[in-house]
């Protein structure tokens, strides 16, 4: 093949391969969260069935005045279902956000990879062009040498002897012929090396092009998935907003029904719809406060008697409006509630040290915790008094059994004046009735 023809072939091949380096570089990764979303949807459907059943029963109880407690309990149960359903919707929204973020990150990584590939491919094309041009020139030179050799013919050693003017001229001519031969050999080495390099570079371009071509289909699929996920995300946000509105409405109805019931019966307690976040936050605080007290007073024993011989926290009031471990609806209740008028004395159930005296506008409201030392089993003993209207002691103060520490009230999450009383052993809540005399 003529050298110029070979050059055109190489240039055509470079152009053809370069055409493929215009698509994105992408290694597909599996979409995240789809299996979890399916599970969430199944759980949502389960709660929707429970909510529908609760609604049906609520309609039956709504006009039965003597079933007000049952109505409140069932409404509270429905609120619990709504809370769970709302949490599932929030998880779905979060999953969708995470999926979109993952796809966006992959696209960003892909764009960076494309830039790298394009830059590398451009460099390879430049190298191929340079090698092709060098090869063409060398090939032209080699062709010219071959033509000249053909025209001039080949000299035998005898011819050189006969035509040379003495030994010196013969040696000179032999050296020239040897030099030409060596030069021709170098030309052929250059040609061979250039062809090998060009072939390797072309193979690299072909490999990159194949990867890019295969990845482009996955990229288009992911872009479509992102579009679909964004649409799903917007729909989920709308659903979540609607669920929140329903929850707030039902919560308000539940709180109102419970308030009316407790005002009628005077069996005050707590609203049942306190958020899980608030419950978790206050519980973490209490656990930390008790932990600090355990470290500070480790090994402390009561001066006399059994530390778990407790007296009622509201003298003369033994009626319980909500017991341990559940409300009448079945929802967890970590203590017992003693309904009483606002301003009633609240006393220390046992001698101890005030480790907490806080005023909150949620949960326990104005509450006190007393540390009483360790029982005979080495367990720390703490009592808690919640929803007070006034605190009469300070943290670090020691109190005697029966000493007035607060005035009862209805602060925090409360339907009316009462004392919420807890007993905790090694931080864990237990039934206070097991220890009250």
TrEMBL record:
Kindly name one Pfam family recorded for this protein. Peptidase_M23
Swiss-Prot/TrEMBL keywords: Coiled coil, Signal
Which PANTHER family does the record cross-reference, listed alphabetically? MUREIN HYDROLASE ACTIVATOR ENVC, PEPTIDASE-RELATED
Please identify the protein, giving its name as recorded: Peptidoglycan DD-metalloendopeptidase family protein
Annotated signal sequence is 1-30
Write out the GO MF terms.
Answer: metalloendopeptidase activity
Q: Which SUPFAM superfamilies match?
A: Duplicated hybrid motif, Tropomyosin
* Coiled coil segments of this chain: 37-134, 198-296
Q: Where are the transmembrane segments?
A: none
Q: Where is the M23ase beta-sheet core domain?
A: 332-432
InterPro entries named in the record: Cell_wall_metabolism_enzyme (IPR050570), Dup_hybrid_motif (IPR011055), M23ase_b-sheet_dom (IPR016047)
């Amino acid at each position: 093949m003529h050298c110029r023809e070979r050059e055109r072939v190489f240039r055509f091949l470079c152009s053809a391969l370069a055409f493929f380096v215009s698509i994105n570089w992408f290694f597909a990764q599996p979409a995240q969260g789809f299996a979890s979303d399916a599970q969430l949807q199944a759980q949502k459907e389960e709660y929707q069935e429970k909510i529908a059943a609760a609604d049906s029963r609520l309609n039956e109880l709504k006009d039965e005045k003597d079933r007000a407690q049952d109505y409140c309990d069932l409404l509270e149960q429905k609120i619990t279902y709504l809370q769970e359903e709302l949490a599932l919707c929030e998880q779905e929204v979060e999953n969708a956000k995470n999926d979109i973020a993952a796809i966006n990150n992959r696209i960003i990584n892909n764009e960076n990879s494309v830039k790298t590939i394009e830059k590398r491919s451009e460099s390879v094309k430049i190298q191929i062009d340079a090698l092709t041009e060098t090869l063409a020139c060398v090939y032209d030179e080699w062709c010219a040498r071959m033509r000249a050799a053909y025209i001039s013919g080949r000299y035998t050693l005898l011819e050189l002897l006969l035509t040379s003017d003495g030994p010196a001229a013969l040696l000179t001519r032999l050296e020239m012929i040897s030099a030409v031969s060596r030069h021709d050999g170098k030309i052929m080495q250059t040609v061979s090396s250039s062809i090998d390099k060009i072939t390797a570079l072309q193979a690299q371009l072909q490999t990159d092009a194949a990867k890019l071509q295969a990845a482009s289909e996955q990229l288009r699929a992911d872009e479509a998935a992102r579009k679909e996920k964004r649409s799903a995300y917007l729909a989920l946000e709308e659903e979540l907003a609607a669920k929140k509105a329903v929850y707030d409405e039902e919560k308000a109805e539940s709180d109102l029904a419970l308030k009316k019931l407790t005002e009628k019966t005077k069996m005050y307690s707590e609203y049942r719809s306190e958020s899980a976040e608030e419950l978790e936050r206050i519980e973490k605080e209490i656990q930390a406060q008790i932990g600090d007290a355990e470290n500070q007073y480790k090994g402390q024993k009561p001066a006399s008697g059994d530390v778990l011989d407790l007296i009622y926290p509201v003298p003369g009031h033994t009626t319980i409006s909500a017991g341990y471990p559940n409300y009448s609806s079945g929802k967890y209740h970590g203590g017992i509630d003693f309904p009483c008028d606002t301003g009633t004395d609240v006393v220390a159930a046992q001698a101890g040290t005030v480790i907490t005296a806080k005023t909150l506008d949620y949960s326990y409201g104005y509450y006190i915790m007393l540390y009483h030392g360790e029982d005979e089993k080495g367990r720390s003993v703490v009592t808690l008094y919640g929803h007070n209207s006034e605190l009469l002691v300070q943290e670090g103060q020691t109190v005697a059994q029966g000493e007035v520490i607060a005035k009862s009230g209805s602060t925090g999450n409360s339907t009316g004046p009462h004392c919420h009383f807890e007993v905790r052993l090694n931080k864990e809540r237990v039934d206070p009735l097991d220890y009250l005399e």
